[in-house]
Recover the amino acids of this structure.
């Protein structure tokens, strides 16, 4: 398998955690989102992923974008150790949390959106930061309420699931932008716990060879 990653991409970070957790090897390919005007825009990468986003996974004939689809592929290819609960209702709730993060939080603060705010829309850095923190706060408030009753060490009891794979990179991103995490004690507790697990440590942005 080849995996196209960027150290600070929270979508790539989700998949790196899954690869490490399942002990699956991948040939890492690095796409620098800022260098050369954004290497994701170079034609070689664009032909692999017309969305010009990371991550992309290539496994034989299969070229797959979207981190959640890639997580699903890895789960099918190597079911153990599982990252989804066996209980159907719980597994669906895990999926809903992944969508809360991947659809409703992360895209609003993604690089291309921020570049559009400060480029064509001419927002100041301070206005950009306000935008970022506003959407993080909205998303995290809902997640805190949703998870406070069911979280243990992880979002769903003590089992590491896709929800944690999405949450921890999103909190990493929030910390980058100076978000105060004190209103979200459950999310913060899960973050602290997951940071002690080997798969999360190995997948962390600062551990990647393309980190600078
Ligand atoms: O400033 C940079 O290093 C460029 C890009 C990113 O971090 C990736 C993102 O767009 C944020 C994210 O995925 O959470």
């Amino acid at each position: 398998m080849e995996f196209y990653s960027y150290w600070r991409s929270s979508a790539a970070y989700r998949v790196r955690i899954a690869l490490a957790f399942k002990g699956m090897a991948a040939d890492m390919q690095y796409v620098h989102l800022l260098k050369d005007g954004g290497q994701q825009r170079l034609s070689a990468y664009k032909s692999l992923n017309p969305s010009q986003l990371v991550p992309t996974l290539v496994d034989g004939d299969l070229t797959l974008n979207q981190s959640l689809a890639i997580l699903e592929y890895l789960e099918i290819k190597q079911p153990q150790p599982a990252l989804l609960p066996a209980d159907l209702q719980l597994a669906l709730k895990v999926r809903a949390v992944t969508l809360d993060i991947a659809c409703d939080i992360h895209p609003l603060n993604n690089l291309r959106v921020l570049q559009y705010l400060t480029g064509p829309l001419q927002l100041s850095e301070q206005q950009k930061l306000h935008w970022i923190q506003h959407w993080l706060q909205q998303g995290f408030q809902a997640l805190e309420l949703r998870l406070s009753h069911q979280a243990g060490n992880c979002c769903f009891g003590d089992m590491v699931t896709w929800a944690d794979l999405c949450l921890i990179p999103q909190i990493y991103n929030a910390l980058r932008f100076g978000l105060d995490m004190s209103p979200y004690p459950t999310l913060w507790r899960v973050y602290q716990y997951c940071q002690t697990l080997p798969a999360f440590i190995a997948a962390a942005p600062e551990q990647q060879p393309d980190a600078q």
Q: What stands out?
A: The mean pLDDT is 98. The domain at 2-81 is CATH 3.40.30.10 (Glutaredoxin).
